[in-house]
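Usage

Read records sequentially. Each one opens with the input sequence:
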Amino acid sequence: MRQDHLWIAVVTLIAAATAACSPGAPSQAASPTPVPLASSFEGYAGAFCSAWTALFRAVGNPDTAEGSVLSKALDDAVAAHDGTKAEQLAAQITQDLESGRRDVAVGRGWPPAAPIMVQLDRVFVGFEAMTAAKVAKAKGSPNAIDPQLAFEQSGATAAWTAMFEAYAALGAARPAGVKPCGDLPISP
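and closes with the structure output:
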């Protein structure tokens, strides 16, 4: 990593930590009642499907690289060097990704699914990194990194593979006849 990239990363981490500790930052006590973690396959399945729905809404189908409406619009804003529009779209994408991450955390409560959900969370983080890199590119930031590289550097590529390995290991813990997640090409 170049020294200027390292410096930006350090400054960003300090700013994030400072914001999280500031008096105006929401505390855990001020947040809504936490959603109970999944304790069964059914609880995991609902959270799993909800997380994948959020991922498809935010970025599209990661398996086929078919983008969502939002991600295609973000790509258009990047191509047009429209930083303002890119920021707006990235905010919507990130909101969906964060919603999905909350679902992932719920699904992780069912012990047999925890390894899958840990890796799926890393994939969500990778798409957040990619989205932020696209905004930097749209704004013409001189230190903007390639969005795909941002995704890969986050560990999301390795997580994608590990997630499917963990999914295969779930095996006998899944009941027979599990239905897909609505119209998505995946099932819990």
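Summary fields computed downstream for this record:
- The chain has one domain: 37-173.
- Residues 37-173 form a domain with the A middle domain of Talin 1 fold (CATH 1.20.1420).
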